[in-house]
Design brief:
2 copies of one chain form a homodimer. Chain A is an alpha/beta fold. Chain A has helices at about 5, 30-40, 60-65, 85, 100-105, 130-140; strands at about 15, 25, 45-50, 55-60, 95, 110-115, 120-125. The interface of A and B includes residues 75 and 111 of A. The structure holds the ligand Nc1ncnc2c1ncn2[C@@H]1O[C@@H]2COP(=O)(O)O[C@H]3[C@@H](O)[C@H](n4cnc5c(N)ncnc54)O[C@@H]3COP(=O)(O)O[C@H]2[C@H]1O (2 copies). One copy of the ligand Nc1ncnc2c1ncn2[C@@H]1O[C@@H]2COP(=O)(O)O[C@H]3[C@@H](O)[C@H](n4cnc5c(N)ncnc54)O[C@@H]3COP(=O)(O)O[C@H]2[C@H]1O sits at the interface of chains A and B.
C-alpha cells in the first residue's frame, strides 16, 4: 500500500467494538467508578447512558483529585459524587465513516478515541495500540 | 528519509529527559504515591532510588487494587504500604544507544518506555506521543 492508500483506509476494521469496551453509566457514583477502573485495569474509560450515547470520559485522577482535602484524602465523599460531576465532557471522537488519517491526527494527543455513528450512538474505540500496530506493519513492508 | 533510515534513527533526540519525568522514590508509601499521581495527572510513573536507578513502575490501579476489601475500600492502609511492595518490577526499557525501530517494537504494548544507560542509570522516557508524532511526519513526507 502507498502511504496515501494507507491513510485513506476506513477505520471500521480496527475499532474495538462497544461490547468489549469497559465503561461507566451516567448516574453511577465515583466509588463505583473507582471499582470498575480498578477491576478492569484501564486508566480511563467512556461514560455512557442507557441508550449507549457518549457523555464523557473518566479517569482515576478525576476521582482522586476532588477529594484531596487539606490534611487527609476524603474517601468517604466518593459515594456522594456522581460521575457526570467529575468526568471530562470533551471527548476526542471519530465518526464511524472516518479514515485512518483522521485517527492518526487525533491519537497524537489522546490515548484512545471514541467512535460514534451519525445518530451519536457509541460504536467502540480506536486505541493507540491498534494504530501503532498498523503503522509498524506499513513501515516494515 | 527512507523507512530504513527512519527506523535506524537514534532515540536520543526524542527522549523526555529524567528531570522532566514525574516519579516516586523507593521507600515512599502508597498514599504519597497517590498524591503524586493525582497532582501530576499521569496514570503511571517510574519508581527510582536516590541514585536514579530504575526499580519499577507504579500506576493508580496498583494502589487501589490491594485495598479493595470485602465490603469497603480500606483507604487507611495506604500509609502502611510501600511502593516497592506493589509496583511492577518488569519495566519495558530501552538503552540510550537504541534506535527508533526498537522503540517502535516496544511501544506496541507499553504507553512509555524507560531509558537507561549502560550503568543502569535512569536517563528519561520515550512516549507513544513522541513516537506517533515522528511516524506521522514520516508518513506525510
Ligand atoms: N488488560 C490489558 N491487556 C493488555 N494490555 C493492556 C491492558 N490494559 C492496558 N494495556 C496496555 O497499556 C496501554 C495503556 O492502557 P491505559 O489503560 O492507560 O489506556 C487505555 C484505556 O484508557 C483505553 N482502553 C483500551 N482498551 C479498552 C477497553 N477494552 N475498554 C475501555 N477502555 C479501554 O484506551 C487506552 C489506550 O489503550 P491501548 O490498548 O492503546 O494501550 C494500552 C495497552 O497497550
Ligand atoms: N499533562 C499532560 N499534558 C498533555 N498531555 C497529557 C498530559 N498528561 C497526559 N497527556 C496525554 O495523555 C496520554 C496518556 O497519558 P498517561 O498519563 O495515561 O500515560 C503517560 C504516563 O504514564 C507517562 N508519562 C508521560 N509523560 C510523563 C512525565 N513527564 N512524567 C512521568 N510519566 C510520564 O507516559 C505515558 C504516555 O504518555 P504520552 O505523552 O504518550 O500520552 C499522554 C498524552 O498524550
Amino acid at each position: 500500500l502507498s502511504s496515501r492508500e494507507f491513510l485513506e483506509m476506513p477505520i471500521t476494521d480496527f475499532i474495538i467494538s462497544s461490547e468489549k469496551v469497559a465503561h461507566v453509566q451516567m448516574g453511577n457514583n465515583a466509588e463505583h467508578a473507582l471499582l470498575v477502573l480498578t477491576k478492569t485495569g484501564y486508566s480511563s474509560i467512556p461514560v455512557l447512558d442507557a441508550k449507549y450515547r457518549l457523555h464523557g470520559m473518566l479517569s482515576m485522577r478525576m476521582i482522586t483529585e476532588p477529594i484531596l482535602g487539606m490534611d487527609h484524602i476524603e474517601y468517604e465523599r466518593l459515594t456522594d459524587i456522581k460521575v457526570d460531576e467529575i468526568m471530562d465532557k470533551k471527548v476526542a471522537t471519530l465518526n464511524i465513516g472516518d479514515n485512518f488519517q483522521r485517527a492518526l491526527d487525533l491519537v497524537i494527543n489522546h490515548a484512545f478515541l471514541c467512535v460514534i455513528d451519525d445518530e451519536g450512538t457509541f460504536m467502540g474505540i480506536m486505541t493507540r495500540r491498534v494504530i501503532l500496530k498498523q503503522l509498524k506493519k506499513h513501515i516494515y513492508q
